[in-house]
Amino acid sequence: MPEDNSFGTNPETPAGASTEKAIEYDSRYAQDSQIVEAVVEDAAEAAQAAKPQTTKDIFVAEEYGDSFSALARSMEQGYDLKMKRKAFDEYTNTLNTLKNAYNDRLNIAQNFNALVEEQQHIIEKSSVDVESCNDRVRQIESQIAAKNDEFARLKKDQAQALKPFEDELARCETVLASAKDEFKQVKQQRDSLDLFDATSQDTQSVQDSHDRIVADVEAKYESAKTAQKDAQRALDAQAKANKAEQRRMSDEIKKLNSEKAAAVKETQEHQKRVDAANERIAFCNHVIAHPEETERMQQRITENEATAAEMNAQIEQLASVHAQSVKASSKARGVIIAAAVFIVIVIILFFVVGNR
Predict the structure, then answer these.
(1) How far apart are the first and last CA of the chain?
(2) Where do runs of H (alpha helix) occur along 111-200?
(3) CA max distance for the chain
(4) Per-residue b/e over 49-63, b at no fewer than 16 CB within 10 Å?
């Protein structure tokens, strides 16, 4: 077997190399190994020197990360807590309604005769009140009908009384229209004469005659206008007086209608009491006839109270967890507040600089 000369040499020495080359190769390999070892030692020392500071930085980052995670959890828990409390309130309100109904049934079972007698008394009294109000309504309706007839007669009489005033106004307006046309005609004739020279005594006489005619017709026209205005004022005064009388009677009718509406409303209120008392008596009879319903209601109350207690326990537990999450998120909240303050300051500075 040939002698193994590879002991103590680089295992990667090429096979068949000469002894000198093997020694040279091993020497270079040893130098490279020393360099690598030195680099590794330096890196280890640097890592050991930097290790405390890096761990601290990681620890601080983890603290803020945990705080923001706690903030997210607190928001989710807060919403869940709000919804649970709302549901709990609704559940307990329903439970309280159920308890009130149960207590009412117990009261009916214990005081049935007294309760029925009380409701019968209400029915008797309210029935009398209903009949009295109905009589009052019928009486008011009769008064309203009489007033409406009177109102119709009043308007008819007023129309007849107003007719002479209307006729007089129509006559005055006819006279005024005729006088206006006549005045227009004679005025046009007189104006036509001014286009010709009054060279003769006859022409001047004609003009003077036309002037007198114009003056007479104008006086007649002015008198017709005065008469028309007087007739219009008389008609307006009478119409105003008629409207005042109609308004007075209309107000009386409105008052009667208001009284009727109040009487009808009062009748309805008394009737509601009668109906409610009848329903109450019917319910009392039903409770006495079906005691098993009261027993089932008691069982439901017991079960619902246990459920409400469990719901309240969960709410208290969630509230405790939520409080812990809020406390753990203080750093994250501080960061958010600081960021918000910074943004506000930047906006203020932006506007201050922009307004300069």
Answers:
(1) 100
(2) 112-193
(3) 187
(4) eeeeeeeeeeeeeee
Token pair recorded at residue 214: 């114009």
Angle ∠(249,243,142) on CA atoms, nearest 5: 20
- Distance between CA 19 and CA 9 in Å, rounded? 11
Distance (Å, rounded) from C-alpha 185 to C-alpha 220? 14
Q: What does the buried/exposed string (b/e) look like for 204-230 if buried means 16 or more CB atoms within 10 Å of the residue's CB? A: eeeeeebeebbeebeebbeebeebbee
Which pair of structure tokens corresponds to residue 205? Answer: 């006489």
The pLDDT profile of the chain, 356 residues, written as one tens digit per residue, is: 334 443 333 444 444 433 344 344 444 444 444 443 443 344 344 434 444 444 444 445 566 566 666 666 667 777 877 888 999 999 999 999 999 999 999 999 999 999 999 999 999 999 999 999 999 999 999 999 999 999 999 999 999 999 999 999 999 999 889 888 877 877 776 666 555 555 555 555 666 666 777 777 788 888 889 999 999 999 999 999 999 999 999 999 999 999 999 999 999 999 999 999 999 999 999 999 999 999 999 999 999 999 999 999 999 888 887 777 666 666 556 667 777 777 888 788 777 777 66
Q: 135 to each of 141, 256, 344, how far by Cα in Å?
A: 10, 15, 76
In the three-class reduction of DSSP (H, G, I as helix; E, B as strand; rest coil), residue 348 is classed as helix
Which token pair is 2?
């040939």
